[in-house]
């Protein structure tokens, strides 16, 4: 490898994976809080923001083209620049009369670029590092991805809440926030232009022809869907998060809505503090515990416990909707319990995705499973706002618990090797 192409991994992995995580949380979570601050209905918020999952659903369809055209370094730089432009465009459109249509269009552009950025950055990571380096930095990349989540769900939302209270104009407040984020991504683009490695140039990799890639693309899908018990596996991917897919769209609106509307009447800053700090910490702890335990007795042993953990703690929202406590710490404690269970339970889901992705095309098959994961989040999320406005928060959260039943039925038919995940 030419020395000019080699870059110290510490110089680009932390910033690359921070920049990978932030757009996702902005599109999927922060946008919900922003539109709620503008007084948009829950039905409209849930329906339109759920459509933003689509790029992650279909990203396996264009991932081969990231390999064919240009280098992964160029794809990363291009998508980061467009992300910066998209964020700036959202900032400019929020104060306008048709802000919802315009901002949704640019959030769509962000979503497609973020999904493409995921493909390119993960590919760059794999071809730039040795196997030993990949193992060492896997925890680093995960940590900075989590820090991006904390920044998005916490610091960004807290800043927006502070500006809302200071300026008394939510549109102007969020416009400033998105302008700051735009500047951040243009900075990432400039920094990574110098910091990212150039492994494809250094290794002088032979590019496959379009015909070769297309043939491999077809074979990848063919082998995935020919797996034994694949129908049950897909149903598992689609139902495991059926309750959560609806809860996640209405949790923040519930916290923000006034008491007389059935909510808890929290401020934007308080929601940012709960989810972006305490919630994320609980999520990470739950994930760590899940990983440690699964590596002991394996996924086959823990899958039922993890299924219970990701679903039953949703019951805290039933309690919150009926009790409507005014104590910030009671509310925070309830959400910490839910997020802790989610972190533990989601570990089982991720391990199962790895389990059915094993084989010749592991990376491509994992991308397919993430597509089914996103589809399982998108479709139920689209109707969740309509259901909530139809029955109210109390009955909606009971419905969320009822919606978890299919996952238990499907899991009863799941087949997992007893030694999978065991050290």
Explain this structure to me?
This protein has 423 residues and is mainly α. The chain folds into two domains: 1-207, MFS general substrate transporter like domains (Growth Hormone, Chain: A, Up-down Bundle); 210-423, MFS general substrate transporter like domains (Growth Hormone, Chain: A). Helices cover 80% and strands 0% of the residues. It is built from 17 helices and no strands. Helix 1 packs parallel to helix 6 (131-167), helix 6 (131-167) runs antiparallel to helix 12 and helix 13 (299-311) packs antiparallel against helix 15. The longest helix is centred in the C-terminal third of the chain and has 41 residues, at 362-402. The chain is globular and about 60 Å long. The mean pLDDT is 88.
* CATH class membership of the largest domain: Mainly Alpha
CATH superfamily of the largest domain: MFS general substrate transporter like domains
The count of domains is: 2
CATH overall fold name of the largest domain = Growth Hormone, Chain: A
Task: Describe the secondary-structure layout.
Layout: H1 13-37, H2 42-50, H3 54-68, H4 72-93, H5 99-128, H6 131-167, H7 170-195, H8 199-203, H9 210-225, H10 230-239, H11 242-256, H12 268-297, H13 299-311, H14 315-323, H15 328-355, H16 362-402, H17 405-411
